[in-house]
Amino acid sequence: MFIEVFYKKSKVQNDNLLKTEAYVDGRWVTAGSGKTFNVNNPATGELIASVPDMNREDVRAAIDAAHDAWQPYRELSAKDRSVLLRKWYTLILENKDELANLMTIESGKVLKESIGEVEYGASFIEWFAEEAKRTYGDVIPAPTNDKRIVVIKQSIGVVAALTPWNFPLAMITRKVAPALAAGSPVVVKPPSETPLTALALAELAERAGFPRGVYNTIATTESSEVGKELCENRKVRKLSFTGSTQVGKILMSQCSSTLKKMSLELGGNAPFIVFDDADIDAAVKGAIASKFRNSGQTCVCVNRFFAQDKIYEEFVSKLTAAVAALKIGNGLDPGVQVGPLISEKGLNKVKQYVEDAVAKGAAVRGGGKEMGGLYYQPTVLANATADMIIAQEEVFGPVAPVFKFSSEEEVIKMANDTEYGLAAYFYTKDVSRCWRVAEALECGMVGINEGLISNAAAPFGGVKQSGIGREGSKYGMDYFMELKYICFGNIQ
């Protein structure tokens, strides 16, 4: 009943994108055990659909199908693979509204953000459709005249993509597009919270014409066992994961048995620094964009705000006013800017971190309360200190703690005082400071006077315990290919 109401309300014309089976070896299938699990709308708690709850045997079949498809698929020309990707890209944009609506009801993010994610996710497919034709090698000067040294790049083999719930579409395309461009079949394992967007992408990949077995998507609540199979199965040559550092370490350990190539995009603790020469209004605008998007549930989301002492009160006051103006509610409703958190566990974590901060001296300048269901008020905490949990751990919710600093040297030390190093942001008008601070921050990505930094042309990834490898950009293809050195000898 809810599905009918949803489609009527959202004016969706193509309900074929709501798939309730997994996609393996070019067929829509159920779990071998017959088990299913429910997918619920975090905004309302209502049932959206039930999908197959697959186990290790099911995922092994998907791996086998991908492995069987590898040889014929990698023999396709780069141009042919590029054409397939372009078709997939076009289909995604043609179905943008349907995909965005589906994403909103299963993830809770507001519709405007979902539409933006579809476009952002599609941009990776467009980018790698072109990069497929640019996987250049090298000719290296040989040490003797009778030899020639050549380096080529080849498809790595079956790629497993383990994706998170906070970006149900873009995290798939960022991993899958370079794999497919390189000539590698894929097995996609979305999270149990948001499998429907992933299955819709598989439907569009099928329509685009990818050969049987090249694109596979499973669904499961048995993440531990299924993940272990993807890590330990020797037919999987590459694993790409976006998620927590804790889970990333487990996967890395499990992949050691096959020495699998890995890309890991893990936890973050992003600092956002506002220097006293900054445009405060621009900094507040950037803060809203980089903190409260998807209710604060993004990997590059700001976790710690630092404002210089001379402008501290001005920044906190203006940020509090901007946060108070945010509209909270169901992501399908017009004008809503902040939706629900993904789960009860996520909500409890936010509550715990705010309570800990207040107990240690933080002042709640705005928000700080539950709103029923999975909703939590966007919150600003002043007088934040290093001993609070939120200073070291990712809150993954709509909470903005603001720390005070005096000097550039002090704030760089504070910003780097974490085991994570994914993204960082700062605002200043001093060009020399831009270079000094950007180079001193220990992270993989820096936004200067900008709160939104992700795009397909830029390498995405972190340092320290925020991960290994990069996705997106011209560098992204290299992580889905193998280098091969060829030596020609006895040349007369």
UniProtKB/TrEMBL annotation:
<dbReference type="InterPro" id="IPR050740">
    <property type="entry name" value="Aldehyde_DH_Superfamily"/>
</dbReference>
<dbReference type="InterPro" id="IPR010102">
    <property type="entry name" value="Succ_semiAld_DH"/>
</dbReference>
<dbReference type="Pfam" id="PF00171">
    <property type="entry name" value="Aldedh"/>
</dbReference>
<protein>
    <submittedName>
        <fullName>NAD-dependent succinate-semialdehyde dehydrogenase</fullName>
    </submittedName>
</protein>
<dbReference type="InterPro" id="IPR016162">
    <property type="entry name" value="Ald_DH_N"/>
</dbReference>
<dbReference type="GO" id="GO:0009450">
    <property type="term" value="P:gamma-aminobutyric acid catabolic process"/>
</dbReference>
<comment type="similarity">
    <text>Belongs to the aldehyde dehydrogenase family.</text>
</comment>
<dbReference type="InterPro" id="IPR015590">
    <property type="entry name" value="Aldehyde_DH_dom"/>
</dbReference>
<dbReference type="GO" id="GO:0004777">
    <property type="term" value="F:succinate-semialdehyde dehydrogenase (NAD+) activity"/>
</dbReference>
<keyword id="KW-0560">Oxidoreductase</keyword>
<feature type="domain" description="Aldehyde dehydrogenase">
    <location>
        <begin position="28"/>
        <end position="486"/>
    </location>
</feature>
<dbReference type="InterPro" id="IPR016161">
    <property type="entry name" value="Ald_DH/histidinol_DH"/>
</dbReference>
<dbReference type="InterPro" id="IPR029510">
    <property type="entry name" value="Ald_DH_CS_GLU"/>
</dbReference>
<feature type="active site">
    <location>
        <position position="265"/>
    </location>
</feature>
<dbReference type="InterPro" id="IPR016163">
    <property type="entry name" value="Ald_DH_C"/>
</dbReference>
<dbReference type="InterPro" id="IPR016160">
    <property type="entry name" value="Ald_DH_CS_CYS"/>
</dbReference>
